[in-house]
Predict the 3D structure of the following.
Amino acid sequence: MTLHEVADELGVHYMTVYRYVRLGYLPAHKEGGSWRVLREDVDELRKAPPSDARRGQPSSPWDQRLLQRLLAADQSGAWKVVEAAQSSGMSIGAIYREMILPALREMGDGWHRGEVSVAQEHAATQVATRIVSRLSALGARRGISKGVVVMGTTATDLHTLPVMIAADLMRLEGFDVLDLGSRLPAESFAEIAAVQQRLVAVAVSVTAPGQAEEVATTVAALRDRVDVPIILGGAAIDGDEHAKLLGADMGGPTIDDILPKMLELVA
Ligand code: B12
C-alpha cells in the first residue's frame, strides 16, 4: 500500500503515516522511490496502536524500530530513530547499548536463522556504520584524557563495526582510542602500538570464530613491543579465562565486562 492509502485506511493525515514509517513503528520499504507498506503491518498497527503514537511520540521499543530501518536499508529513517531517542533523553552510551547493539545482534540472529539475506545484512551493516560514524561525532568528549588505547582486530577478522562501537564506548569514558579497524597484520598492530605516548592498554577485538591461532600470534607480537595490559574482547571471547588462555591479560565478550577494570587501571 502507498502511504496515502494507509492514511485513508487509518483515517489519519498522510504526514502521520509518514512519521510512523520514519520513526520506525510502521515497517515500510521503497519501490521506485516511494514508500510501500504491507497490509498486514497496517493491520498490526491498527490492532495495537501505541497509545502515545496518537500524540506523535514513538512508543515501540527503540531497538526494534532501529532494526526495522536497518533491514529496510533506510539510512535517513534510521538516523531519525536515533535522533528521536536522543531527544527523548537517551544518552549516547544508552543509544549504543540499548538500540544499536541489540538491533545488530538481532539482525545477526535473523541472518543465522536464514530469515535475513546476506545482501540485506550487508546493506543494514552499511547503514549502521554510517549511523555509528554520525553518533561518534556527537559523542566527542572534552576533558582530561585517561590515556591512549590502541584497538583493532586480528589479520583475519572482518568485523570493523564492533571495533568502532567498542572504541566509542571507551571514548565516552575518557580514553583516547586509536581505532585501527579490521584485518591489520599483527606486526603492524604491534609497531603502531609501540610508538604511542601515554599508552594504557591494547585492545584486540575478536568477533569471528575459529581464530585461536591468529589471536595468539597477534598477542605475541604485541607482547614483544609493549608492556601495557593486552585485552581481548568481542563475540568470540567467552570470558577472562578464555582471554588468558590466548595469552592476554584480561578479556570478555562485551566492553562493559572490561570497562570497570580499565578504569581501575588508570585510577
Ligand atoms: C555485520 C556482521 C558481519 C559483517 C561485518 C562487517 C563490518 N563492517 O563489521 C561481515 C559480513 C563481514 C561478517 C562476516 C562474518 N561473520 Co559476522 N556478523 C555481523 C553481525 C550481524 C553484526 C556485527 C556487529 O557489529 N555486532 C554488534 C556488536 C558490536 O555486538 P557485540 O559483539 O555484542 O558488541 C560488543 C563486542 O563487540 C565488544 N568488543 C568489540 N571489540 C572489543 C574489544 C575488547 C577488548 C572488548 C573488551 C570488547 C570488544 O564491544 C561491543 C559492545 O559491548 C553479527 C551479529 C552479532 N550478534 O553481533 C554477526 C556475527 C558476529 N558474525 C558471525 C559470523 C559467524 C561471521 C562469519 C564467520 C560468517 C561466514 N560464515 O562467513 C564471517 C567472518 C568473516 C571474518 N573472517 O571476519 C557470528 C559470530 C559467531 C561467534 N563469534 O561465535 C555472528 C555473531 C552472527 C551469528 N549470530 O552467527 N559479519
User: Anything to note?
Assistant: The two ends are 58 Å apart (CA to CA). The chain has two domains: 3-138, 148-266. The first strand starts at residue 29 and ends at 31. Residues 6 and 12 are 8 Å apart (CA to CA).
